[in-house]
User: What shape does this take?
Amino acid sequence: MIQHLNQFGFYKYGLRKQEGISEELSVNVLQSQQISVNWEMQTVFQALSETWILPGSGMTVLSVSQDGESYESFYLDQPVCIHQDIFFYLAPLRRENTGAQLRAEKLPETVDAQSRLGCDHIQSNMRVSGIYTFFYHEKEKGFFFAGESHPVLELTYVDQGVMHSVTDGQELILEQGDVVLYGPNQWHMQYADMDVAPRYVTLSFEIQDGDLSALLNRKLRPTQAAVTLIQQMIREQDRMDAYSIDMIASQLTQLLLLLLRHQEPAQKLMASNSLNSENEIICRAQQYISSHIREKLSVPLVARMVDVSPSYMTALFHKNLQISPGEYIRRIKIQESKQMIREGNMNFTEIAAVLHYSTVHHFSRQFKDKVGFTPTEYAKSVR
Assistant: This one.
């Protein structure tokens, strides 16, 4: 980052003219050298005596170092006198050649010349480079999302109620105000208890540079400043004018930076090889169920497909998800039936047959038990 020339930041390299350096030094020096400051090539010097550097035309940056390895950069807007043995080079601030003058009893020695050493321009460590989806969900009681994975990051913020988040086979309980961040290609699912109708925000996005690994797969409690940013993003989505996407990307960048800044020591979801193995089994089972939900499913069949016994898979589901695999299958089938009802391409008898219910009456009873009203009542509510 380019710094301002002040007595606090520059003192270990030299002094500014305003800090009482004798004017006579700039007049009575023995040697003077006019140099061209080139955008494509920079010359590294080492001061053999106290050396004045006087800015010339254009905007120039002075980079200085005590060891020739680690440099700090300052905007050269006034004459400075650097100490003997300091390494330095000059670079234009923009893509244009500039000039400067060196004055010293002994002119500095050329150490090296390299292409595009450049200077430390102000650069961001991370920014959101693309937003793909931004949804505010208002779910019915007991909603059940079967799960997905995709190549971009996804953030979920719970605005109201409580919901369950399952990532790589392990569950987090997210309360109002909580945030969770899923990594690229990470399979995840979400659901609510039967008496809870949550509201939550999801965003899928990409970042340029930056490392969010410390935030992934954790229950995060954002500060009030971070919550305010989320609320501003929701308002921008409602407004949606020519500047809203850029505003949301900027606000999301700030939100992620706040989460990184205020994170607690990482508590990873997976703490041992044994737990990793359990999570992998659950994740494979969930993915198999989701991708074969329109087939005839049973706990023994799914257990066989993931190479474990039905009793062991049942124990893992109870331990990690607080639900049996049979109940999990039933809830996924109901969720799929709701989607089919919304699409309106099949009647209830056809839906029951596709999802392998024994009869349409069996389907209707299970639907009312899980959703709270009949398929007919649900169809009327969504059309």
Q: What stands out?
A: Residues 20-27, 265-272 have pLDDT under 50 and may be disordered.
